[in-house]
Structure formats: C-alpha cells, structure tokens
C-alpha cells in the first residue's frame, strides 16, 4: 500500500532544497496535495496556523477603535504601541485565506475574538485587550474585530475551502472588573482557604457566614446555593459603571468568583487565585459549569466550529473539565462534527511530558498543547542539547492517557505569543547571529515539527522569518506594515525585509519550506498517524536523530532523520526488516537498503529527510 505515494514523493523532492542546502530562487512553493474533506479528516491529519487577528490584516479601518470614542486609553487603538490594538480584524483574516492555505494549512486557530475590556491596568501600566483574553461579553465578537455576522462569513469561507476553524476559549477568568476593598493596601496577596475559609468573613476569626455550606468539593447545587456571601477572603467591589458589563448577566454576580487575590502560580493559588488580577471564576460551582457549557455550546451550534484551544486549562479544577469536555463533544456530534479537536494550555517550559500527561489524566482533557516538544525542539535544533533530549522526550509518549497514540493528536509548536518566537530561542541558545546558520537551524526545527509525531502548529509570522525580542507583547508583531519601533528594528530570518513593511511573501524560504513539508505530511499516513520508534541518536553532542514512523492501518513506514550538527554526516541506521526498498518523501534519501534491516543515510549540516520504506504490507 505504501507504493502509491512514491511518485508524489519524488515530485515533491524535485527541484527543492529541503535538506538544508541553498533555497531555490524561484517564487512560490509546490502546491500541497489537497487534504481530505473536513468530515473525513481525523485530528492527526490537520496542519494548524495560529494567528492573533489584531496583528494579521486590517480589512476594515472603520472598526479600528471598536466604535468607542475618546483616546487610546478609552478605545484601546494605538498602532505605535506594542500593547494596544493595531487594527487587524476578521475581514482582513478572511481576505488572506489564500495566503494561509498556500502553506498547506488545514485548520486555523485564532486568539479569542470575544468582546474584551478595551483597556485595563494601573496608571502607567495600561494595555489593551487586543489579544482577546480579557473577556466581558462571551456572546459577541469584539467590535475591534468586526461583527458576529463577519465571524460567520469567516467560518463559512474557511469551510468552503476545506479548512477547519478552532476557537481559543477562556473559562478560568473574565476581564479585571472586580476589585477588593482591602486589595491595594494588601498588594492583592493571595489568601488561602485555610486562613480564610468560606465559613467566616475576612479570616478564621471573622464573623460566621455562609451557614450550611459544606465546602467547594461538594458539587450539589443545593450546597452552592448556601454560598451567598463572597467576603470570606476579600470584600469584592465593582464600580457602578461596570456592575452589568459582563454578558451573560450571571457573570456579574461576585459570589461566582474566588475573590482570594492574585495567584503565585503554585499550589492552591494556581487554581483559586486571580490570573494577574483577572477575575477568577469559581469553576467548582455548578452554576458556572452550566453557564460555560451553554456559552461555548452555542458557538458550536451557531457557527459549526471544529475545535477549541482552552486557555489556562491547568488553572481550572479537574472536575470542571470532566463535565465540560463531554458536553462539548456531544454538542459537536449533534451538529455533525465528528472530529472536534479540544486541546488545553498546560503551560510549562521543560522538555518533558510529565505535567501535561498528569493534568490530562486528572481532568480527562483529550489533548494538550505540546509544551514539552517546543522546549525539546528549541534546545536540539539550536545545538544547545544533543538529539538524545528529543529521543528521550518522544519515548515518554507512553505515559499519556491512552498511550502513545494520544501523542499523535497533541498540537506541536516551536514558539508562540506567550513564550516568544522559535527563531529567538534558536539565536539565544546557539549563541550565533549568523544569518545563514540561523535560517538553517530554523528550517531544521520546522522539519522536526512536521516529520515527528503530533499536529504541527505554525505561529503566524514564523513563515516570514519573524524574530521576537522577548515574550508576550514582544512576540506579537504585525503582518501588515507595523508602526511599532521595537518590532521594526529586527532583522528578519531569511530575508532583508523588516516588519515596517507588509509581510505576505509567498516566495519567502520559510513559507516555501512549510508548504513543502505540509505536502509531504499530507501525502503520508505514516507522518500523520504513525507511532514512533527511535532508531538512533547522538548522545552527547549535536548529530543524528532517526525516528521510524509506522501507521498500523496502512502499514506505511517512514524514517525521519535529522542532522543537528554543523558538519555533514554519514551513518548506518536500523530500519524495520519489513523494508524492501526506499523512496524519498523529502530530502536526500539513499537509493536502496544498505542491508536487510539497515540503510546508510548521508545528510548535510542541519539537514533532514523523510524516507519512505517500501514494504510488502
């Protein structure tokens, strides 16, 4: 069955330089083979593109201020400030679907588009909700981005092209509307459940309140009906102007929030604390559970979206997800969406699967963003760590709930809007700013993301060589001509351009590379759904990593090989004894087996290849 892919593989390799050599000069990548229809594609078949709508394309300048009057501190629009709205919107995103699909992308995940608090922050620390994570109205598109009708038009346009749409959702918190009477004087320090139980006002020595409440581990609605006084830790206050700002209206009830002060990211505060001041919902409360199911189920019903990325998933109690996830899958199935993709953000910065697997098991979350892969790819592609690090990371796949097959549905990425861009990590970890070497290492990292297990997720702008100066606001550059000085002074990877000009160049070497890798992946069941067997790795220095991918359904086998070193290498590598021949899927594969059960691979510096192992299966 694997032989049907040989001619396509050969066509993909013709005239390309995927193995780390010079990039061909002609414009445009070879078109990727068309993905299967939406209804037929499994989660593992997708190639995701993650975008912040505000920073992508401005299709309607009339909505730049979101219909609000005043100055930037009122409407949030200031295209010269990295922390304010810049003008990108849904019309602009819809108009660029050709560009996005040209890379072989099959699914678009975008930052939240719900209506946000335009500006928040203490005097001198103000910034805007351009990123979408400060929601006040969960039922409406933020006017800075457009209208609900324009969102429907975007979804319909994407679906008409066979592209899926993933929404970024938040259940952990809302915008910062609730203040605490004692908060500023106390520095909003977290107040624990032991020192400030639900049963007393302002601490263990305070007056008794909430009589009959049996604790927040009792999910009975009758129990939660007895929690009527929210002053157990702090005294929540809301300004008159914002008392009814949240939609749906139940979100304005301060008793539905934890009201314990700011999280310090570990222990109890990780779940019960405010996320940098954002109002932390009491997701143990059955009213909150039912309300969030209603909110996000309606977006599935009304728009037929195909998946959710869940923000701050590890900061929500596991019982919430145990109710929420099945409810969303049921709503999707009722809409005829059979492969609804749900993946949570479980944030950490170590090359390990342990925390993600733990949270997934506790919460019954089906998938998580693969933070461990990102860190391993950064360290290995930069040369900071030997290939052994990635090999040992992949060998942890068995610890995920459901085993190694679960790892196939984890969205893998290299950098993002929170931590920073991949090219920045490579530059910093390698200690080299040489343009050619940096481009070669960035190409190598993308090859790892597309050829190893998981669902490759491209962060917008990476295909144009964007290189951040840090995390958060510093990694959220504009694709259209930027007016932010701290963005425009960067030398982009693989080009002489800067962010001071529009960057939608389909001839950019990284855009072309992604298109070529996407074509190879789309053509190969083993690259999409193949389980991993690590065949070889350099233990102590940069060098070879070899991983065989096997798809049990089709029998197809592919050997993915990478050279993380600065010098060419030639090495014999074990392969399955079922292999009878070899065909190149991408990169410089040998013409034949070296011996039964072995091939000899030759790769240039920072080179890579995917070799189709022809079998009799």
Q: Give a quick account of the main beta sheet: strands, pairing sense, barrel closure.
A: 8 strands, parallel
CATH class of the largest domain: Alpha Beta
Coarse morphology: globular
Number of helices, where a helix is a run of at least 4 consecutive DSSP H or I residues: 19
Number of domains: 2
CATH architecture of the largest domain: Alpha-Beta Barrel
- Helical content stands at 25-40%
Q: Can you tell me the CATH superfamily of the largest domain? A: Glycosidases
- Secondary-structure content class: alpha/beta
Query: Measured on Cα atoms, how large is the radius of gyration?
Result: 25 Å
Q: Give the percentage of residues in beta strands.
A: 15-25%
Mind explaining what this structure looks like?
The chain has 617 residues and is of the alpha/beta class. The protein has two domains: 48-172 and 287-522, TIM Barrel; 175-266, no CATH class. 27% of the residues lie in helices and 16% in strands. It has 19 helices and 23 strands.
Give the helix/strand layout.
Elements: H1 6-13, E1 48-51, H2 72-75, H3 90-95, H4 97-101, E2 107-110, E3 114-116, E4 119-120, E5 127-128, E6 135-141, H5 148-160, E7 164-169, E8 173-174, E9 179-180, H6 183-186, H7 221-224, E10 236-237, H8 269-272, E11 279-280, H9 286-303, E12 307-310, H10 318-334, E13 341-344, H11 354-363, E14 367-368, H12 371-381, H13 388-394, H14 404-407, E15 411-412, H15 422-430, H16 435-451, E16 455-459, H17 485-488, H18 509-523, H19 525-529, E17 531-537, E18 544-550, E19 557-563, E20 569-574, E21 581-586, E22 598-603, E23 608-614
Parallel strand pairs: 1-2, 1-16, 2-7, 7-12, 12-13, 13-14, 15-16
Antiparallel strand pairs: 3-6, 4-5, 8-11, 9-10, 17-18, 18-19, 19-23, 20-22, 21-23
């Amino acid at each position: 069955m694997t032989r049907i892919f040989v001619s396509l593989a050969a066509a993909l390799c013709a005239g390309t330089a995927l193995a780390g050599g010079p990039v061909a000069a002609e414009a445009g990548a070879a078109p990727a083979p068309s993905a299967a229809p939406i209804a037929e594609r499994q989660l593992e078949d997708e190639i995701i593109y993650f975008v912040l709508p505000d920073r992508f394309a401005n299709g309607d300048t009339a909505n730049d201020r979101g219909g609000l009057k005043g100055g930037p501190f009122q409407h949030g629009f200031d295209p010269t400030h990295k922390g304010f709205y810049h003008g990108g919107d849904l019309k602009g995103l819809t108009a660029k679907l050709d560009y996005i699909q040209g890379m072989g992308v099959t699914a678009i995940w975008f930052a939240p588009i719900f209506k946000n608090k335009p500006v928040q922050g203490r005097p001198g620390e103000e910034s805007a909700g351009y990123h979408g994570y400060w929601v006040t109205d969960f039922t409406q598109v933020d006017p800075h981005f457009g209208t609900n009708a324009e969102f429907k038009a975007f979804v319909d346009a994407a679906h008409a092209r066979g592209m899926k749409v993933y929404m970024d959702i938040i259940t952990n918190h809302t915008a910062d509307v609730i203040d605490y009477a004692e908060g500023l004087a106390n520095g909003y320090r977290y107040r624990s459940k032991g020192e400030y139980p639900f049963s007393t006002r302002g601490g263990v020595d305070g007056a008794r309140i909430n009589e009959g409440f049996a604790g927040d581990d009792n999910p009975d609605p009758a129990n939660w009906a007895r929690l009527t006084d929210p002053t157990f830790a702090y005294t929540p206050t809301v300004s008159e102007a914002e008392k009814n700002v949240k939609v749906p209206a139940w979100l304005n009830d301060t008793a539905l929030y934890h009201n314990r002060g700011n999280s310090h990211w570990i222990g109890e505060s990780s779940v019960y604390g405010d996320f940098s001041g954002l109002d932390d919902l009491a997701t143990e409360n059955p009213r909150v559970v039912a309300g969030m199911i209603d909110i996000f189920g309606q977006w599935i019903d009304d728009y037929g979206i195909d998946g959710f990325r869940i923000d701050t998933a590890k900061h929500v109690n596991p019982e919430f997800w145990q109710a929420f996830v099945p409810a969303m899958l049921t709503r999707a199935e009722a809409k005829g969406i059979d492969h609804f993709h749900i993946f949570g953000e479980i944030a950490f910065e170590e090359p390990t699967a342990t925390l993600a697997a733990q949270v997934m098991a506790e919460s019954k979350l089906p998938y998580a963003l693969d933070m461990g892969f990102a860190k391993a790819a950064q360290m290995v592609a930069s040369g900071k760590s030997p290939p052994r690090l990635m090999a040992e990371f992949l060998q942890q796949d068995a610890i995920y709930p459901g085993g190694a097959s679960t790892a196939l549905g984890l969205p893998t990425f290299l950098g993002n809007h929170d931590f920073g861009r991949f090219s920045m990590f490579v530059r910093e970890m390698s200690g080299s700013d040489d343009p050619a070497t940096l481009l070669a290492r960035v190409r190598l990292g993308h090859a790892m993301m597309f050829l190893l297990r998981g669902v490759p997720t491209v962060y917008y702008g990476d295909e144009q060589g964007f290189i951040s100066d840090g995390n958060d606001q510093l990694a959220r550059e504009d694709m259209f001509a930027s007016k932010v000085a701290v963005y425009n002074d960067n030398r982009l990877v693989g080009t002489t351009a800067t962010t001071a000009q529009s960057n939608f160049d389909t001839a950019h070497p990284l855009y072309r590379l992604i298109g070529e890798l996407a074509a190879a992946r789309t053509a190969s069941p083993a690259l999409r759904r193949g389980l991993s067997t690590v065949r070889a790795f350099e233990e102590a220095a940069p060098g070879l990593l070899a991983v065989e991918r096997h798809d049990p359904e089709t029998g197809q086998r592919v050997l993915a090989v990478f050279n993380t070193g600065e010098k060419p290498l030639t090495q014999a590598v074990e392969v399955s004894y079922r292999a009878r021949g070899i065909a190149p899927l991408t990169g410089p594969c040998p013409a034949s087996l070296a011996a039964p059960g072995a091939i000899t691979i030759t790769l240039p510096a920072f080179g890579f290849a995917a070799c189709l192992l022809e079998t009799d299966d």
